Amino acid sequence: MRRMAGALILSLGLLLPMGVAMAQDHPKHEWSDSENPAWHQYLKEQHKKDHEWAKASKREQSAYWKWRDQHRDVH
C-alpha cells in the first residue's frame, strides 16, 4: 500500500507541471489584414522574398506565428 501511495504521489508530481503548462493562456492565431505590416516585417527580417500570407506554406505560417508571439509590439 505504501508503494502504491508513493507511486501515486510521484505520478502526480510529474503530471502537474504538464497540466499547468496546458492551462496557460496561449494566444489564438487568426489572420486578419491588420497582420500585414507585421508579416512583411517578418519577411524582411528573415531575408525572405516578399509575398502574400495566402501563398505562404503551413511551415512558414507556423514560423511566423512563433516570431509574432515574440514581437507583440509590432503593428
Topology readout:
Blueprint: H1 2-23, H2 36-45, H3 58-70
How would you describe this protein?
The chain is mainly α and 75 residues long. The chain has one domain (2-70). The protein contains 3 helices and no strands. The termini are far apart.
Radius of gyration: 20 Å
Instruction: Give the number of DSSP strands.
Output: 0
Beta-strand residue fraction: under 5%
Strand/helix succession:
HHH
Categorize the overall geometry: rod-shaped
For the largest beta-sheet, the strand count, sense and barrel status come to: none
Number of domains: 1
Helix content: 55-70%
Uncertain stretches of 5 or more adjacent residues: none
| Helix segment tally | 3
Distance between the termini: 59 Å
